[in-house]
Amino acid sequence: MRLRRIPDALERIQSQNLLVKPPLTIDDSWIIEIGMGKGKMITKLAFANSHNNFLGVEKFPSAAVKSLKYVKYYNLTNFFILISDAKDLLSSIRGKTNQIWLTFPDPWPKKKHQKRRLTYKSFLSIYANLLNKNGVLKLKTDSFKFFEFSVASLLENGWKIIFRTNDLLNSSVGDQNVMTTYEEKWVNLNYKIHYLEAIFN
Description:
Layout: H1 9-15, E1 24-26, E2 30-34, H2 40-48, E3 53-58, H3 61-64, H4 68-74, E4 79-83, H5 89-92, E5 93-95, E6 97-103, H6 121-130, E7 131-141, H7 144-156, E8 159-165, H8 181-187, E9 194-200
């Protein structure tokens, strides 16, 4: 579905003091979601984990602005937004985090576009530099082909997969899952959600 442009989206985010400007300094108390979309998952996690800070990275302000309703509902003070392309993260963020989420990234199914996939080796290098030595990369997707590409890419580029499932909701961690808006839609249509956790060796 095409994203409807909201002309004042950036100004609305700024008015709520949620927008952070690079370079942002973080530590292991921060949890990052890359491509947060409307922010339903990350804001719910922020509400449940008040001792952590949460950073939603989103390229499009018109998507990120949708998170404001959740911020208001949960009365959050530990959630922030960075408007950035994933490829620019190393120049936008300083420090190390303990957890990075990739939630339903564009699978870019055509082979000629594989360098744009967020689990291509150039992006994995960025995550490796942002995570501390115990840091975990978590991926959720509804695309089996993208998931298989991601598994292969991780293994080829020095990562160790510590958990993997092709049916997240019925897995051993399913009861801990917090859904995105996109995820809810596909789960209701009986789609399986593929999920993994990986660490950089």
